[in-house]
Please model this.
Amino acid sequence: MFILKRQDVEISSIPHPKREQPMPVLHYQGQTFRLINVFKASQEEEARALWRELTDGRGKACVLLEEPDRYSIWGKIRLDQLGSDTDVHSKTGVFIQASILLLQAVYLEIEDFLGSKQAALFEKDITEVLRQKQLPQASSPEAVKYLLNEDPLDATSLPSWQENHVITLLQELHKLGKTYFGNANFAHPVVDRLQDLPEGERSLFISWLNQSPMSKLWQ
Model:
């Protein structure tokens, strides 16, 4: 959508609808954008690739902000709808949020316990798996990198998945996690990895999980 310089925009912060810390927002020509991702100055290529993925691949209205020491990507929001987006309160929306939180939890545990090289390999492996499964908005390296780093509690950033896509992700994530860890201990207790979800939504997901084909994998 836009590639801008720091002097073109105004940056401030507003209360986050679901978290205690404030949320940075960018203002440009009467439009408001929230921070999606930050890249080092040396990561210009990665920043531009993700920006293109979001704008061209997903049709998102995004700003790529160029600064001397970094690149950042911002997604358009409507302040009057912030925190009240109906999608996030739908069952499928909750399932998508929870599955992305689990994906991020496994990725971070691999990085913490096995090191950054293994985490990078995991990112490549999960990218290839999701490409083969043709998961919508998750079939390119840029899209997967976005999933691993986005805030899934922000409804505006959720991929357009159906319940079967969530099941596919959880099945493949469990399979890949066992390969890396050598056991399935990472998959339970699930509730510990979903603390960012509000209690009601967490309970909804756990209830669905227990009645789904995933009940024996994620506990």
About this structure: The CA atoms of residues 190 and 219 lie 6 Å apart. Helices lie at 44-57, 86-89, 91-114, 116-132, 141-149, 163-181, 199-210. Residues 86-210 form one domain.
